[in-house]
Automatic annotation (TrEMBL):
Lineage: Eukaryota, Fungi, Dikarya, Ascomycota, Saccharomycotina
Reactions this protein catalyses: 1,2-dihydroxy-5-(methylsulfanyl)pent-1-en-3-one + O2 = 4-methylsulfanyl-2-oxobutanoate + formate + 2 H(+); 1,2-dihydroxy-5-(methylsulfanyl)pent-1-en-3-one + O2 = 3-(methylsulfanyl)propanoate + CO + formate + 2 H(+)
Annotated metabolic or biological route of this protein: Amino-acid biosynthesis; L-methionine biosynthesis via salvage pathway; L-methionine from S-methyl-5-thio-alpha-D-ribose 1-phosphate: step 5/6
Entry protein name: Acireductone dioxygenase
Function: Catalyzes 2 different reactions between oxygen and the acireductone 1,2-dihydroxy-3-keto-5-methylthiopentene (DHK-MTPene) depending upon the metal bound in the active site. Fe-containing acireductone dioxygenase (Fe-ARD) produces formate and 2-keto-4-methylthiobutyrate (KMTB), the alpha-ketoacid precursor of methionine in the methionine recycle pathway. Ni-containing acireductone dioxygenase (Ni-ARD) produces methylthiopropionate, carbon monoxide and formate, and does not lie on the methionine recycle pathway.
Length: 176
């Protein structure tokens, strides 16, 4: 079961730390904002789930200190992932090893909901949801990224993306 909780918004502490307010977030609340969570132990289960949802492409990312030539390059990549953004396609992320934090902005009250994904955790992020990603203090994740269309990573940052068509559609879908 994924651990999800309200983020404490403490910008004075490294974003890879837990930032746990102690306020848990239920799967029902995640579903209300359009997220789907599944725990899958086998690749076959992931493949069937992806096929049901018409996913065509995938890649594997390994993000760790060794993936970068130096600390500065790593931090600049992490800062890109940590900027609040949306994508125009629904996307699946499945944790193969290590762990990471997906923070998802609750559109009803603007709280950040932090999901700690670990081996076997799968998240579906709907198109248009504002979110960000970071490694944890372990500095390692191996993740399968599944794409409905081409395997490209195009991020649209807030606030410019507020007027994006997919943002508007997302808000309508969740009832706002
Ligand atoms: C662990 S997957 C890499 C991050 C990513 O794909 C994403 O969409 C971050 O927002
Ligand atoms: Fe993203």
């Amino acid at each position: 079961m994924v651990k999800a909780y309200v983020h404490d918004n403490d910008a004075s502490v490294d974003f890879r730390e837990d930032h746990d307010t102690g306020k848990p977030v239920s799967l029902e609340r995640l579903e209300k904002i359009g997220l789907i969570y599944r725990k899958f132990d086998t690749q076959q289960d992931v493949d069937s789930f992806a096929l049901e949802r018409n996913y065509k492409n995938r890649d594997i990312v390994n993000i760790t200190v060794d993936s970068f030539p130096d600390e500065e390059t790593m931090m600049s990549k992490l800062n890109v992932f940590y900027a609040e953004h949306l994508h125009e396609d629904e996307e699946i992320r499945y944790c193969l090893d290590g762990e990471g934090f997906f923070d998802v902005r609750d559109p009803f009250n603007e709280e950040w909901i932090r999901c700690r994904v670990q081996k076997g955790d799968l998240l579906v992020l709907p198109a248009g949801v504002y979110h960000r990603f970071t490694l944890t203090s372990d500095n390692f994740i191996k993740a399968l990224r599944l794409f409905k269309e081409e395997p490209k990573w195009l991020a649209y940052n807030r606030p410019e993306a507020d007027k994006n068509r997919y943002r508007q559609e997302y808000l309508a879908q969740v009832g706002l």
